[in-house]
Amino acid sequence: MRAGKFNHALGRGLVVIIVDDDPAVRASLKFALEIEGFTVHAYATGDDLLQSELPAHGCLVLDYKMPGLNGLQLLDRLRAKGHDLPAILITSNPSAATRDRAARTGISIIEKPLLGNTLSDAIREALQVYTSH
What we know:
It contains six helices and five strands, in the order H-E-H-E-H-E-H-E-H-E-H. It is α/β, with parallel strands linked by helices. It has one domain (13-67, 89-131): Response regulator (Rossmann fold), CATH 3.40.50. The chain has a five-stranded parallel sheet with strand order 2-1-3-4-5, sandwiched between helices. Strand 4, helix 5 and strand 5 (108-111) form a beta-alpha-beta unit. The longest helix is centred in the last third of the chain and has 14 residues, at 118-131. The two termini are 20 Å apart.
């Protein structure tokens, strides 16, 4: 396996779920992560995700600033419904309050612009809960 690539054998049944209201960001993240070997489902809003069936295993990638629910509010709703998928928050210039709330929630923040392999590396790390024994 080439360094930096996702091991497909370990990835069976693992899904990356992107929620971002910007169609260009959503499409580019989906494309880039699929090239890396991830199975990706993308949603425009938190409400769209809440109305769908979530996989048993995977990683959430949530934009913070969206119409309706922001990324942390969406995560709160998912946790209240019993979903405990690992999550990553993506945003530009997060405030100290946002950083504090994310830290209390146990969610990592990756700042936009998303450079290099920062996001895919964070997703791989989050998915380790399913692939390491």
